[in-house]
């Protein structure tokens, strides 16, 4: 139910200003510019309508306010009319920038607010399409383009990530066997879930495409007795991973290679990639499939874990611009370009989006607890930017705007596959 | 390893005839027509090469024979050169017709033979493509076209199917919790597996698109306390289903509707379709998705169980021509046309192809045990035709030429979904 219709707004006016029947009942007619509050109010109504009328109160500081009779999930106050006007011209990008700059104040839970926006489902595709061409040109995932894009996000400091990712330094969706599990427990459970899906056996070899800080490779080596070659083009992550492998006495079992997945050679029992596909680009999916297929023998198994979509769509433009240049969460029909050209059989797809919502909530809580240290490392704008990114991602997964797919696959005709999936659920 | 190269054939010649170095070493040069055995031998080599050189012995009755040094999985004898020539012009269709007519004799296990052919992987796409246009025109799944296509297969007599499908009359892939389960146990386990995936609760309502002989609808009503409306356009199947529901006292809980899935209206807690999608046609997938999406509320769940492919390809042309007109097993990228236009979220995909190979092996064994009765109902040609269809299908699933997908889905943003899949594996 959405109680935020315009007549209600008029009746529930809080600011004590005189009612403006012309704007309250016919919001398409802008008031004259000399009527400051009336104009702000009209702009707020336009914004709310563009957002699909979520249950949110909106205001311009020291000026107009529009409210809901339903309990609003949160309220948003813009610093000035200029801020509001700027956001109206390009809401998906400029809201994020204005929030980061401190020109938007949120009262209430930021995740709930963003969930309400996603559920209301206004705008979306139309605004996103404006950015499609420009972004596609700017952030191509060529070999050097990928390096730039990855450097932008992953090389901003291991110390920063260590503040909120937890002990595992796993920067991907965790798996909560029960909703009560802690973040660290759930990250370890995710690693075991993937290893069980791949049915890793001692003595086998695994190649990992995109290994983050390398902790999953260590986990496979330590707990499943496999040898791992793990690829990553983030210099900072590889340095961390090598140091940690040496410290934990696993350097002989795990080799970290600072190189692109396109450089993988050799044959392995399993191919695994957790949270890299988002950075690969659909144009390169066939190549990724060729590499996965080519490096596993006829009895090989593969698993790709990636953020995804219900249908093809661009990443939220502000996230793409400020946080993840070159990233794209694919629909399963897009992921098919990895598998179909090589006749790879899809054995199992699991959608873990609610687990990613929970993971992000826990990262956000850790992040907030460490916000003073983040501010000391960077600045207030950075603190707010990353808060918005984490909260927005939590909201996108909890509302089903984003999905999380784990796709298990094998070469055509490999019958050395699990008879059922019950082994995933028997300790 | 494939030991069936031509020099080996020459050395292992069994028929006692003089060696023909010209054909043994240069198989592309046909011998003169007056040299009968030499010509037959050359034709057999051509056929075997076209099939990708499977480990199979081939012969023309009372004439030439080509053999393998490797233990052949089976041997194939053609009644005459005319039979062999006919098959060479169009192997994928005419082999089936010649086998049905009794002009091809198989020594050895028919499933193993066909597995060897599928694994060798010759021909395939090229031959299949010849039929694509003609078949696409002939067997369209319009409302009346679907009726004709379904009548062709499903209305040939319930008594016939009862001979080999087992007590459940389920004519779709079973689910063997362990490989030792019986066919009936596995069919019941399949029904429970689907009900658990859908998380059916007493008092809920379910619509079933394509209900076969109606036994799954009865199972849902009896064991999960739900009301079911089940659609099917096969007159014979609906008649059987209604009679059985009345006999089992479930006629008030289960309504069978003799109508097309495109006529489904109303709102339900769950949408389910087992083994109908193969008959829907890719062009109608968006319509199927609209109906599934439209008939479930925001908390609905859906499941589609279908034969599938690793990548888009036509059904084996003889099966399509003689057994399943209008049928098409889709790749997941084709199934995406059901889900993506309506933003349905794919929650879980399970590939059960080895379970279908086992199901078909058990159907085939039942069928062979009842072959005298089948012969009395129809004729010898029918007996052989259906034997080939069942054996060929078993081989297609065991070699990964066909897949079996169960796809669980829900409307975007439905958070009333299972937290993990562990409930499927706890009795």
Task: Look at the helices and sheets of chain A and give the structural class.
Answer: alpha/beta
Major beta sheet of chain A, specifics? 7 strands, mixed
| Span of the ends, CA to CA of chain A | 44 Å
The CATH architecture term of the largest domain in chain A is: 3-Layer(aba) Sandwich
Q: Tell how many strands the DSSP assignment of chain A holds.
A: 11
What's the number of structural domains of chain A? 2
Helix content of chain A: 40-55%
Alpha-carbon Rg of chain A, integer: 24 Å
Q: Tell me, what is the CATH class of the largest domain in chain A?
A: Alpha Beta
Strand order of the largest sheet of chain A: 7-6-5-8-9-11-10
**How many helix segments of chain A?**
18
Chain-averaged pLDDT of chain A: 88
Under CATH, the topology of the largest domain in chain A can be stated as Rossmann fold
Pick out the low-confidence regions of chain A. Answer: 1-27, 123-137
What fraction of residues of chain A sit in β-strands?
15-25%
Shape of chain A: elongated
Largest interface, C-beta within 8 A:
A-B, 45 and 45 residues
Oligomeric description of these chains: homodimer
């Amino acid at each position: 139910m959405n109680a935020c219709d315009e007549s209600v707004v008029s009746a529930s006016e809080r600011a004590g200003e005189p009612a403006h029947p012309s704007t309250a009942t016919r919001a398409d007619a802008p008031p004259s510019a000399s009527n400051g509050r009336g104009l702000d109010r009209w702009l707020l109504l336009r914004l709310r309508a563009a957002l699909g009328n979520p249950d949110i109160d909106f205001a311009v500081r020291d000026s107009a306010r529009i409210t809901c009779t339903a309990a609003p999930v949160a309220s948003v106050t813009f610093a000035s009319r200029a801020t509001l006007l700027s956001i109206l011209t390009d809401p998906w990008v400029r809201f994020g920038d204005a929030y980061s700059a401190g020109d938007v104040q949120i009262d209430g839970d930021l995740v709930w607010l963003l969930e309400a926006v996603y559920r209301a489902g206004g705008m979306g595709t139309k605004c996103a399409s404006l950015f499609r061409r420009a972004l596609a040109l700017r952030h191509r995932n060529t070999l050097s383009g990928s390096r730039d894009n990855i450097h932008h996000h992953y090389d901003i400091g291991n110390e920063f990530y260590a503040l909120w990712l937890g002990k595992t330094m796993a920067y991907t969706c965790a798996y909560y066997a029960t909703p009560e599990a802690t973040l660290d427990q759930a990250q370890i459970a995710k690693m075991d879930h993937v290893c069980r899906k791949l049915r890793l056996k001692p003595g086998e070899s695994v190649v990992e495409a995109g290994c983050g800080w390398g902790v999953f490779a260590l986990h496979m080596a330590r707990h499943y007795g496999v040898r791992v070659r793990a690829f990553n083009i983030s210099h900072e992550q590889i340095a961390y991973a090598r140091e940690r492998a040496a410290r934990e006495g696993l350097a002989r079992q795990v080799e970290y290679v600072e190189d692109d997945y396109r450089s993988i050679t050799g044959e392995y029992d399993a191919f695994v990639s957790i949270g890299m596909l988002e950075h690969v680009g659909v144009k390169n999916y066939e190549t990724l499939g060729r590499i996965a297929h080519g490096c596993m023998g006829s009895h090989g198994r593969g698993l790709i874990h990636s953020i995804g979509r219900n249908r093809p769509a661009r990443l939220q433009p502000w996230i793409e611009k400020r946080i993840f240049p070159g990233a794209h969460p694919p629909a399963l029909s897009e992921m098919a370009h990895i598998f179909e050209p090589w006749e790879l059989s899809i054995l199992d797809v699991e959608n873990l989006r609610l687990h990613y919502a929970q993971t992000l909530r826990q990262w956000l809580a850790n992040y907030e607890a460490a916000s003073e240290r983040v501010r000391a490392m960077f600045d207030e704008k950075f603190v707010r930017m990353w808060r918005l990114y984490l909260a927005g991602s939590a909201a996108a997964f909890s509302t089903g705007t984003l999905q999380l797919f784990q796709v298990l696959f094998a070469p055509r005709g490999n019958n050395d596959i699990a008879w059922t999936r019950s082994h995933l659920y028997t300790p």
